[in-house]
């Protein structure tokens, strides 16, 4: 049992969803309204907001200016000898992007957070319109 919980917690989707649910429950506790449908609508809206923010920041992290910041930090580490790769020269920006930024092992799942966040928004809208 303990091993399976640890294995589940290492899955990024489970970790992000659990944190988003806890955050939505805390917000629901702080802003409790009368009516079950209103509270469910608030819960799904909070859940969707957290998941869309997480998915958006993960997407933005791998493009444009953030990729440049990551490359600049890599070059600084290389100059100070903190990169233990034994490279004779630092990678170019294109090599760094291909080898490090686009590495599948370093990618965080973006689609899951955005899709579940959108479903949360749709559920919140449907529950709010039922009244």
UniProtKB/TrEMBL annotation:
Superkingdom of origin organism: Bacteria
Keywords recorded for this protein, A-Z: Membrane, Transmembrane, Transmembrane helix
Residue spans crossing the bilayer: 43-60, 110-130
Full protein name: DUF3899 domain-containing protein
């Amino acid at each position: 049992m303990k091993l399976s919980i640890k294995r589940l917690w290492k899955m990024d989707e489970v970790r992000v969803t659990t944190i988003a649910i806890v955050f939505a429950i805390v917000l629901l506790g702080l802003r409790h309204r009368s009516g079950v449908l209103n509270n469910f609508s608030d819960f799904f809206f909070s859940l969707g907001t957290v998941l869309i923010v997480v998915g958006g920041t993960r997407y933005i992290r791998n493009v444009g200016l953030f990729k440049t910041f990551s490359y600049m930090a890599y070059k600084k580490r290389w100059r100070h000898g903190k990169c233990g790769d034994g490279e004779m020269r630092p990678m170019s920006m294109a090599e760094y992007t291909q080898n490090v930024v686009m590495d599948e092992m370093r990618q965080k799942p973006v689609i899951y957070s955005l899709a579940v966040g959108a479903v949360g928004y749709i559920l919140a809208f449907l529950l709010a319109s039922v009244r």
